[in-house]
Amino acid sequence: MSDGPATHDVTETHEAPEAATTLTTPGGVEPLDDEQLKAKLDALPPGVRIENAIAQLGHAAYSVSFAKVAAPRLRDASDRVGHNPVGAGLDHLVVSVLQKAVVDTASLFDQTGAGSNSLYRALDVVRTQLKDSPPSPERDAAIDLVNEIQDVGIQNKTPELKYVRHMRNKWAAHSSMDISVDPWGPGKSVDFGMLELAIRQMQHHFIELVILIQQVPALEGMEREGRRIDEKTVRMGIDWDGFGRQALAIMGGHAENSARLLLDRIEPELMQSEP
């Protein structure tokens, strides 16, 4: 036995694939660096950030309602089809729609990334707008409310928000060994009741934000200016107050109907693959 240091000869391994030198697209565009990205985000009208955050509420409601209808039917179809490539594909679809429901719900209170379309980042934008306005007791009260929603409503998470965060971090958005060792069993099932309650809690805070924007002079016109293209043109957009209050009902209903129509259409074809 040699007394020298152990060595490993890897000269016979396969050649490593050639790596790209840049992230440039075929059109010659490279992604912005952090400083450039921040400048672009800061230049956006505050109303654009708010509207995108409210729209995300609708996306989350759609994803959860779609998964609530589609996942059980896809799983049932997989059981009936059996162990074959079609069944494996159905199992993959089940996991995909469930994970998207979790990730889209978690995005409502996401605190990472300055460009996130979360309520938390929307509140950051509103606070900046308020701090840039003339001091007044009304302005200070509005800032206090923004801070309270962030601190009490989001950072001090309810059990429902904690559930969504755990499901995202331990299963839906990351590959983790937690699923193997945690008795809690993230990913073994998805509690749609918890997801829906989390969305309703975020919806409540969105409505609080919209009411604040309507009542505080320093925020007046934010919704209108967020849609302005130029002096004569304003793009179509969602009504913040109306959509904020009805997002779950409107988007949830659309999603459930879409899932039913889709499965009604494809299930007969899938059953041709039954063993």
Tell me what the structure shows:
This protein has 275 residues and is mainly α. It has one domain. 64% of the residues lie in helices and 0% in strands. It has ten helices and no strands. It has helices at 34-43, 46-81, 85-106, 119-131, 137-155, 159-172, 178-181, 192-215, 222-225, 240-270. The mean pLDDT is 85.
> For this entry, what is the oligomeric state of its chains?
single chain
- The secondary structure category is mainly alpha
- Tell me the overall shape: globular
Helix content estimate: 55-70%
* Distance, first to last CA: 58 Å
Q: How would you spell out the order of helices and strands?
A: HHHHHHHHHH
Q: Low-confidence runs (pLDDT<50, min 5 residues)?
A: none
Number of helices, where a helix is a run of at least 4 consecutive DSSP H or I residues: 10
Total domains: 1
Q: How many strand units?
A: 0
Strand proportion, as a percent range, falls in: under 5%
User: Roughly what is the average pLDDT, rounded to an integer?
Assistant: 85
